[in-house]
């Protein structure tokens, strides 16, 4: 049984601890600080997973722009020492979750699985240290069976440190992928050890590992059941197995599925195998297909030559950072498919399992890549974890074992590493080839010479040149190494805006055609025509499918995200999107870009992305030029601007198509459209904002600020695809509260003293009534006094009345000392919890969520102080508060558009309003 464990976590940045932060542990279940079993941390932020705390940090170009310009680390790519512009880096985060264990789990085995934590995390169960996991990209699973307590509260605590980068792009911080509990029988299937192999005639091999975690010999049957995509059973088999006590055993099955439906790009047919031993069952999805790379015919899917038309992609997106919901993973794959892509490179790390599910279901090939090219224990752990977890996904066609290791890739040392990691990969999965992303041309001394499939990063990295009679160094390389298949692991590296026309590096401006490249890069036509016309070239992956935070070439000092993407960071298409769609799909395409809003007399270059045979450009009805379109062309026209209508007419297969750009006026209004619908509270919906002039014409140069408000949902992030935008992508929730300054303590008034000054004092302030006394003329007096009269081992009762608290959610005490109980209207709402020596702390706030009634409420605290407590019962602030979602959301239009990311428990009822700021 797998249980989603994403809901109701609590989170705090390390800087939020005002006295000390420790993650130490001594004896069993004796962790200290926020990792102990009981920690009164209700004043932490409530979050659901996935979660990335770095996205909401302010952007600052003084931070490492290659990592997105956030204050998450002292590391800076362009400085040799830790930079000290800031006192703090927000690199430590703590997560906690309290839960009750189901009594039905007793006698079973319980595991917790983390699909991805960035990074360097320590995990504790009920204060007991379980393990550390350094990699920010690989999944891991830990058994917590022995540390659970039935009939009591249990806790999971995780410390995360994202100070150390693993890559050179935005990597976020936090538990940013899904978390699951696995509850299994004492005899169970070992996690990620099931392996499936298929042949085109329907022969299916399945191997699994069974653990017998009992002291008994198990003689049992294994039932293997196979189902098609409609849930119909297509094969079944029973095998016998004997399991020794406390042992692991491999079990295997071979069946044949008659008339199998193959997995391919157009028909991604999936099957499911269910394996059952006793009460325990596991299942795996798979597809029936074969993959191969041929030196002369490139990539073969099910024996058919298939050109790989791919995209390299990092994992962050829009206003959510790296914490993508499942539906956003599917959204990204659907956008790439729409563009004509058929392949995805997981650059440069293990991907989310959900992303691979999307590729399986939608028909997308995957080059699956490990983060670390190394034979170190950590490198081997990462590679093993990746392959064992992902080898049953039919979408995965090749393993990439490294990328651009500048320091060693041209020497023999790298060949030794490549040979060893290849052996490891083959021992785990002998059904797929392996490659390496080499940006070193025709060098074969190192890693390239021993790579099963030669991976080429950039055809312009020429290496040693070419022999006479060859048009390109890669043609020569293929001639010299006729038995080594070749794939383009990375290509293009053009930089572009979504709607720009001007190229001005000094002011950070780029056009939108894709014809501005980095020194190693190629234009869309340059690399597509090259690979499509060479049968031996298996295909290639553009850098990149989507923009991503960080690596802001060529503007490394002024921007926060990349300009490489063919789709921007928020999922909006740039013009080359339609270039690929024109030449990679059979759909007629005619797209005139970018816009027609200029100054009279300007010289303007426009591009036409089309697969039409002939096109005619017209300005205000007058023909400018008619042009034949050769295969892979991207026609460009430069003409003098005059307001009005620019139109292109295209002819394809005797059919006529048109597209227009119309001069628009100033932005007068905006529209809101849902472009990605949420199905439930776990999904994130995407809304697009577009600017229009007073006549209802879309304004593609709109750059106004737009105020946002929402009903029946929450805005969780915004974005506009502008790599230089300094505004926040996320806003933090806001706390609203009022302070309770005094309690009654018997006949006295207890004024709440400040926390710090009273760490070692027992003073409290109060009023006392002084009656008329002999020799004095006062009738009476009300004396403001103080006492140091708090005695140990005595119960003190403090009460106060609270009114007008409708909508408030909690009462919070900065410091409660001793043994206390807190009551609201006679109902107990809070008390310290204890376990071992780390029972509680009088150093941190206690927050108690409660239900206030209308009218007057009574808040009561009972407290007993021991000698060792040495304090007053209550000190510091006492507040009644509530968490309010931010209401001041806004987003700036960039080339006429922006996007808003929304979550809701009732997604069909969301109303998102947008209006221009005055």
Architecture overview:
- The protein is mainly beta.
- Helices cover 9% and strands 37% of the residues.
- It has 7 helices and 55 strands.
- The chain has an 8-stranded parallel beta barrel, surrounded by 4 helices. A 6-stranded antiparallel beta sheet has the order 3-2-4-9-6-7, with no helix packed on it. The protein has a 4-stranded antiparallel beta sheet with strand order 1-10-5-8, with no helix packed on it.
- α1 packs across α2 and α3 packs parallel to α4.
- The chain is globular.
- The two termini are 55 Å apart.
- 45% of the residues are buried.
Provide tags for this entry:
918 residues; mainly beta
Question: Secondary-structure blueprint of this entry?
Answer:
Layout: E1 2-4, E2 9-13, E3 45-47, E4 92-100, E5 109-114, E6 121-125, E7 128-133, E8 140-143, E9 153-161, E10 179-184, E11 187-189, E12 195-198, E13 203-212, E14 218-227, E15 233-243, E16 247-256, E17 271-277, E18 280-286, E19 291-294, E20 298-301, E21 304-305, E22 308-313, H1 326-339, E23 343-346, H2 353-362, E24 365-369, H3 377-390, E25 396-403, H4 412-428, E26 434-438, E27 453-457, H5 473-480, E28 486-492, H6 524-532, E29 537-543, H7 576-584, E30 590-593, E31 603-610, E32 614-619, E33 622-628, E34 636-640, E35 645-652, E36 655-662, E37 669-676, E38 685-692, E39 705-711, E40 714-719, E41 734-739, E42 742-745, E43 748-751, E44 764-771, E45 780-787, E46 795-802, E47 810-816, E48 819-824, E49 827-830, E50 846-849, E51 857-864, E52 874-884, E53 890-892, E54 897-903, E55 911-916
Parallel strand pairs: 22-23, 22-29, 23-24, 24-25, 25-26, 26-27, 27-28, 28-29
Antiparallel strand pairs: 1-10, 2-3, 2-4, 4-9, 5-8, 5-10, 6-7, 6-9, 11-13, 12-13, 13-16, 14-15, 14-17, 17-18, 19-20, 20-21, 30-31, 31-34, 32-33, 32-35, 35-36, 37-38, 38-54, 39-53, 39-55, 40-54, 41-52, 42-43, 44-45, 46-51, 47-50, 47-52, 48-49, 48-51
Helix pairs in contact: 1-2, 3-4
